[in-house]
Amino acid sequence: MTARPLPLAGFRILAAEQYGAGPYGTMFLAQLGAEVIKIEPPKGGDSARQSGPYYLGPDDSLFFQTFNLNKRSLTLDTRSEAGRAVLHRLVRTADAVTNNARGDLPARLGLDYNTLGAVNPAIVCVHASAYGRTGPRASWPGYDYLMQAEAGFMAMTGAPDDPPTRFGLSMVDFITGTMLATATLAGLIEARATGTGRDFDLSLLDAALHQTSYPALWYLNEGFETGRAPRSAHPSVTPSQAFRTADGWIFVMAQLPKFWALLADAIGVAHLKDDPRFATVAARLENREALTVILDGVFLQHATAHWEQRLGGVVPVAPVYGLAQAIDNPRIADMIDTVAHPDKPGGMRVLANPIRIDGERLPNRAAPKLGSDSDALLAEAGFDPQEIAALRAGGVI
After folding, report:
1. Which ranges of 257-359 would DSSP assign to H, the alpha helix?
2. Which of 272, 101, 115, 122 is nearest to 202 (CA)?
3. For FRET with 286, which of 18, 145, 318, 378 sits at 20 to 30 Å CA-CA?
4. What are phi and psi of 366, to 5 degrees?
5. Cβ(241)–Cβ(232) below 8 Å
6. What are phi and psi of 380, to 5 degrees?
7. Average pLDDT in the 94-122 region?
8. What is the CA radius of gyration of the chain?
9. Residue 182 in contact with residue 113, Cβ under 8 Å?
10. HSE-up of residue 81 (Cα within 13 Å, Cβ side)
11. What three-state secondary structure class fits 350?
12. Cβ atoms of residues 242 and 232 within 8 Å
């Protein structure tokens, strides 16, 4: 990186967070330069630390590292009176407090603006729960896969005859975390301008429903319910789907009429452009099955690499890779970073942040050991060694 500070340098964010969605969002803030202080229970910490199957010593795992790069760790029992007193000392020096607790817990734990605004009027409080902090399901626990089920994702994913199918990854957690980061940034901008913070709320279910996007508007306005299509095809455009090759699969997206014409020319089936079954967008959609059979016959003549080389840069196209192929792809080598880790000789390989600043990747460091910053943070807040020792003896930290 250049000598200029990172964009969020100088912001302090307290994150009372667990597992996936909340930590994913605050990691973006930490990678952009904010000081993110991860507040964890003294016994065991974030449950992600115990999430296997790959561990890095006590209270640490590769799963935990995935969501917590660049943070500091403070162990603190926020349910105790002494713990809340410590929290309030820290809130006076902080800009935001985030959490992804169950909806009924932030108010009970004193993590909302009603409580913390009395300590620091400029504090921004961001809450990401499963079902929101109000309503009949506020006290319900919830996870990503449940939201994929209820928001319609599973009904729209997979082949037509498959059982309900979830995404291969926890995409609802990731988008909710991204929205948490966005809400936090909005709150920070407002609080810097006005001197007053407030509560920001989002839920996994709301975030999932928001991602139903244009199929939702099709249904809301036209009553059309998007279902599944063979080959992971686009619901209204073809050819925009996976095709078999001699050694695997390739995904082609002729989203615009010009790409259909370019594709037909490039693979030697220019005559199909004038075939009434395929001459228009509507006709191609109506005759998708017949077109798939014809194009499979063409693509099966050569390997995926041949077609990628022939079509790349001409028609939107990509090879269908397994995870190992995707990660080992030399084209994305700069998306892999190596950071020092005390229990990983030679360093730990991690994913780089997708954001670039001045053309460069953001810096990374390993996620913290449980409570590794507790003493330093408390000393910075004005606690003397005797007070810190007493807090530890009492199980508060």
Report:
1. 257-266, 281-286, 288-299, 304-311, 323-328
2. 101
3. 318
4. -65, 155
5. yes
6. -60, -30
7. 98
8. 25
9. no
10. 0
11. strand
12. yes
Q: State how far the alpha carbon of 214 is from the alpha carbons of 46, 90, 156, in Å.
A: 36, 43, 13
**φ and ψ at 299, to 5 degrees?**
-65, -30
Which pLDDT band holds residue 131 (cuts at 50, 70, 90)? very high
The Cα–Cα gap between 97 and 370 comes to 19
Residues 6+ apart with CB under 8 A from 259: 253, 315, 316
Tokens encoding 215: 């199929």
Contact call for residues 228 and 160 (beta carbons, < 8 A): yes
Non-local (6+) Cβ contacts of 263 within 8 A are 239, 252, 254, 311, 315
Cα 116 to Cα 204: distance, rounded to the nearest angstrom: 24
pLDDT digits (tens, 9 = 90+) for 181-207: 999 999 999 999 999 999 999 999 999
- Kindly report, residue by residue over 200-236, the tens digit of the pLDDT: 999 999 999 999 999 999 999 999 999 999 999 999 9
Half-sphere CA count of 315, side-chain side, radius 13 A: 29
Q: Which H or E run includes 36?
A: strand 35-40
**Cα–Cα dist 44/102, whole Å:** 19
Spatial separation of the C-alpha atoms in residues 13 and 94, rounded to whole Å:
6
Residue 274: pLDDT band by 50, 70, 90 thresholds?
very high
Query: Is the peptide bond between 363 and the residue preceding it cis, with omega within 30 degrees of 0?
Result: no
